[in-house]
Design a protein that fits this description.
Number of strands: 8
Oligomer: single chain
Structural class: alpha/beta
CATH superfamily: Divalent-metal-dependent TIM barrel enzymes
Number of helices: 9
Strand order of the largest sheet: 1-2-3-4-5-8
Strand content: 5-15%
Order of helices and strands: HEHEHEHEHHEEHEHEH
CATH architecture: Alpha-Beta Barrel
Distance between the termini: 56 Å
Helix content: 25-40%
Shape: globular
CATH topology: TIM Barrel
Radius of gyration: 19 Å
Length: 282
């Protein structure tokens, strides 16, 4: 069956470059944790059989204590209870879990690419690298950490960074310096300045009510133009990323077909297809 899938994909001029499972394998809900854990393990074993070495997932988000039944995403340093929650989540759940999964994936020759996503414990470059440094104490920053699992890295999706106020170009620099960019999503975000000035960026409103939100996902080029995408693509190239830009369509103003076609057209104009063999500066 795996060979048939590979042949069918190849016959259409396509290539499998990663398997995405996107779950919460550390959920405090036992049924969800077990199901998402199985999905992840299956993807890790299946990926090499389909010709890829990348599995894409979220870090997941545990509860705030062993007694919790739902995830608890901490977004502030205070009240002090939050520090106890973070210690529990990282030291008792996340690091032991992903340390084991990193070993299992390494045995299969597979890299795990985490998509930094708010709502999950790894949501920015610092927490991504914190997860990659599975042996580092909680107090360490995202630089200079030891005990790195080199097959834990990032699925770099700029759309989730824009509305947090994170510069995706600087993120590509930091993650690239760490050798931690395994996959990249092509997705944009549009920020509504009026709604943001009134309500900030932590928006729990419906994605369907676009006019009421502080931010919405957009097709590439419709949230930011060349002023972002050209430096972003260039930084990826400079830091050695030569993989695909995988278009993820979640633009509520366009159909799937239109959004995909527009993203392809836009990205073709900014991609660097052939790196220079040498550069001379005068």
């Amino acid at each position: 069956m795996q060979q048939k899938i590979r042949d069918d994909v190849r016959s259409r001029g396509l290539e499998i470059i990663g398997l995405a499972v996107h779950g919460n394998p550390v959920s405090p809900d036992p049924a969800m944790r077990a199901a998402h854990g199985r999905d992840h393990d299956t993807a890790v074993r299946l990926a090499p059989k389909l010709g890829t070495d990348v599995v894409i997932n979220f870090s997941g988000c545990p509860g705030g204590s062993p007694a919790d039944r739902t995830p608890n995403w901490v977004t502030s340093a205070w009240p002090n209870d939050f520090q106890d929650i973070l210690r529990y989540q990282w030291e008792d759940v996340l690091l032991p879990f992903w340390r084991g999964k990193a070993r299992e994936a390494a045995n299969e020759g597979v890299k795990i690419a985490f998509e930094a996503h708010p709502g999950f414990t790894a949501y920015n470059p610092e927490t991504l690298l914190r997860l990659r440094a599975v042996g580092a104490p909680l107090s360490k920053s995202c630089t200079g950490q030891a005990a790195v699992s080199s097959n834990l890295g990032a699925n770099l999706d700029p759309s989730h960074f824009f509305w947090q106020g994170i510069d995706p170009v600087e993120s590509a620099r930091i993650l690239g310096d760490a050798g931690a960019i395994f996959h990249v999503h092509g997705k944009d975000t549009g920020i509504d300045p009026h709604n943001t000035r009134c309500n900030g960026v932590l928006d729990t409103g419906s994605y369907g009510e676009i006019g009421k939100r502080s931010w919405v996902f957009r097709a590439c080029g419709f949230g930011h133009g060349d002023e972002f995408w050209k430096p972003f693509i260039s930084m990826l190239r400079i830091k050695g990323y030569d993989g695909v830009i995988s278009i993820e369509h979640e633009d509520g103003t366009m159909s799937m077909q239109e959004g995909f076609e527009k993203a392809v057209t836009y990205l073709r104009g900014v991609l660097i297809r052939e790196p220079a063999a040498a550069a001379w500066w005068y």
